[in-house]
Amino acid sequence: MKFQPTRCPCKSPECDSSPSFQYQRRGRFRRACDGREVQRFQCKRCKRTFSTQTFRVDYRLRQPALERRVFSSLISKVTQRQAARDLHCSRGLVARRNKTYGMHCRAFHEQMIFERGSSLSWSGCFLLDELETYEHNRRLKPLTVPVLVHKPSYCILYATVGKLPPRRPLSKANLRKLAALERAEGTRRSESRTKVAECFDVLEAITQKSGAVAVRTDEKHTYRALLQERFGERLLHSRTNSKVRRTFRNPLFAVNHTFAMLRDGLSRLVRRTWAGSKEREKLEWHLWIYAAWRNYVRPITNARPNETAAMVAGLAPRMLEVSELLQWKVPARSPHNERSQNPSRPPRAVP
Ligand SMILES: [Zn+2]
Q1: Cα(9) to centroid of ligand 1, in Å?
Q2: Which of 139, 153, 179, 190 counts the highest number of beta carbons within 10 A?
């Protein structure tokens, strides 16, 4: 089927609020970088011209042949410097793609969650746990990465990154560095509670408004309080001591396994690595790239090669290719507040 634009990309309030979007075809052109033929259009209201390419993730990216390979480096434990050496491109290009793809993958996932809707019930329970890592300095700038996983499907529903206070005791040299750091950035306080609350907000948004919600976590006290605030009587909360052996029989296996996969797939999360994160924002983009690949592209397990986590969770009707995941831009939305605000729904992410 031929591509048909559903909105004007000019973003002016007049075009955005206009009830009927009308356009005209305005010839074609051939892209110099890959020879692909592209249809041009013109908006009948604002007269702005645009093309099929305007709506694609690789809009204005000049080396299309590299895109797939940069993406696969980012999910294959290759550091950004090594990817740049392998692909004969600059380190800046890899860093920019980390941002572009990270933001896109997050928007894509949120769109899929939105399309699934909260009225459809979820089978099984949800697991939440926090992975610990750091930015720049392991002792002075630790980070927490709360991840919400749907147990039967291993689907990563939400992941975020928050600051943690310095890990004490500190050496004399580190104490001096900490004093300088606090002068520059202020005291580093824990964001664990707010970031975990974000995960539970998402859980509240994606589940039905009535009926029980089953969640399993470890024994950290804040989880119980935050969950009770949101679900009250509907909450079925079970807790597992974090000292229980982390085998397949551990009730938190799905989330422990997700952490193990993240540590194996993301160069910056590998233990005792030279490639640790420098900035937490970039870690968050990188996490979303991995989450989207894990949910929509990678088979759920090696024994089930034709099924993805998103298919089991009811988020996608079929397995996607990386090229499909990275095909169409998705307007950014937040699962907390999108329910009623956006009457003009964007085109389906997976046709
Ligand atoms: Zn327009």
Answers
A1: 7
A2: 153
